[in-house]
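Problem 3 from the worked examples.
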Amino acid sequence: MVGLSAGEKHFIQGGIAQDLRTDGRKRLDFRPISVETGIIPQASGSARVRIGATDVIASVKAELGKPNASQPDKGKVSVHIDCSATAEPAFEGRGGEELSAELSVSLQRCLLGGKSGSGAGINLSSLIIVEGKVCWDLYIDGLVVSSDGNLLDALGAAIKSALSNTGIPKVQVAVGASGDEQPEVDVSDEEFLQFDTSSVPIIVTLTKIGRHYIVDATADEESLMSSAVSISINRRGQICGLTKRGGAGLDPSVILDMISVAKHVSEQLMSKLDSEIAAAEAMEEDS
């Protein structure tokens, strides 16, 4: 936890009330964002995202698997986040494990929707190769390298960037397998399909401090929050997931206002992230 004096807390809260934060931003401004792609050669796709002093890495590994019996027409995706003990003193021991589990669950909800798959940002049906028999399993791993607040949004941006960097090998299915037989498949080493990220959402967290809420809170600002709502929104402005942190309750009208603000802010963030991903991909191709 960040140890702030009473004077520092008062200074931060007073600034937010006047729409001027300690680093010069307004309440709904993000810190500078940078993206690098293709940083882990062994992965199917990878990316590193820095938002201010928060630094995270995401990687995607695609492996052949078998669909669940309850969802034979869908592939599978799992999300696991690890918080490096060197990123923050509080991450040592149980603190890091608990936060890792909390972030993993939140990202799973934001990207994969409900149990039925409705609202999913990743189209699980696109991962199927032979219905009921063969599918792609995507293993998404995230690592928090350095933490200065707003981890969920940064990890969401890193996962979206890593997925846009992901190539899924082309698969040829041998003709002739029938009944319960497992079909033979030939996985190409040379031909890859670009993973479709058009529906993958970004995450916007609104942190409530005093009577106001801000985006992209720093660690100092998060230490003063009463509650925070994270909303995942896709390119069409649809809500894919919503999670809340903090003990303070929120009036439904406040949550609706937060969703409206998040939709507006998400357009700017999506545009910025798109241009950063495009620039990173171009740099990767040149190198």
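Problem 4, a separate protein:
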Amino acid sequence: MAETEAQLLLGVGLIEKDTNGDALWVWCYPSTTTAFRDLLLRKCCLTNENKQLHTFLFGQYKLTWFYITTMEIPEASTLKRVTHFSIVLTTKDFNPEKYAAFSRILCRIYLKYGTPVKMMESYISVLTKGICQSEENGSFLSKDFDIRKAYLAGSVKDIVYQFGMETVILYTALMLKKRIVVYHPRIETILEFTRALPALVWHRQDWSILHSYVHLNDDELEALKMCPGYVAGCIDSEVNNRIDLYDVYVNLAESEITISHQAKEAMTMGKLHKELGQLIVQSAEDPEKSNSQVIKDVSLKTKEILANLASFTEVIHDGEKPSLNLEALKQKRFPPATENFLYHLAAAEQMLKI
């Protein structure tokens, strides 16, 4: 466990908002770059007086996850000149519940002692032993937080409840590794919705595609554009006009999904998509089925599609990666939309370069 946490935990930081309304990065371990500190200051909710207080939020930047817990200082506190503070954890893994629990303990420690020293002791304990505990501030045990639970925490059923048959558009975009941008003015709604989307392609179990809290700043957008496919959440309505950022645009506030012009050919819907949509909706609307059972149903159908696709692969030369036999695919005489989907899926699964 100790080795695992040493590999996953990257750092801890402290941001304070003083009685003058200024938000400052006051401490971190180990050191970090000025550019990354500026990004984390932008993410926390203390730098703009008009922003609502967000007790917990998370996101990713260049494969580094950040988790930010923010608290208001009660009047009877040792921190006399501070009104709010944020604890920032940076890690290599996606596990919001785990780091929310850990950061809450760090917050209680900082509230009590008013110095990062005691907080640092607990951080080092988790880093080296995977555990920190005290009667006053609570206990944290890393092994209590299975990564699969984090993957399953997002609700696919809620996605289907909001979008019905159109959920298959999101499924198709994820399968084809397209760029999905999700807009809503409320960050908590964005976080809840976007974290569930990768579960629709459970066979990959890849949450590195998730960029749940993106600002329209050049550094973040340049990093995002380096990703071949992603799910990006944004609270700035201007993202609607940034057609260079998405293949599929989801306006959560209006319950609308839009396919961009450049993605329409690859995203052509047909009989197979209708069948997929019906399967997803029927499974999600079954009151007897849990969220994990819905994910399993979708995953089984996905494996069936991939097995069908694999039957059209061949090895041309010994030692080479299998490639798609296009002639065999055409001889099967699938409907045009199905053939088109399988063709682009083969590219997404790296069976074919297009």
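Solution to problem 4. The mean pLDDT is 91. The two ends are 43 Å apart (CA to CA).
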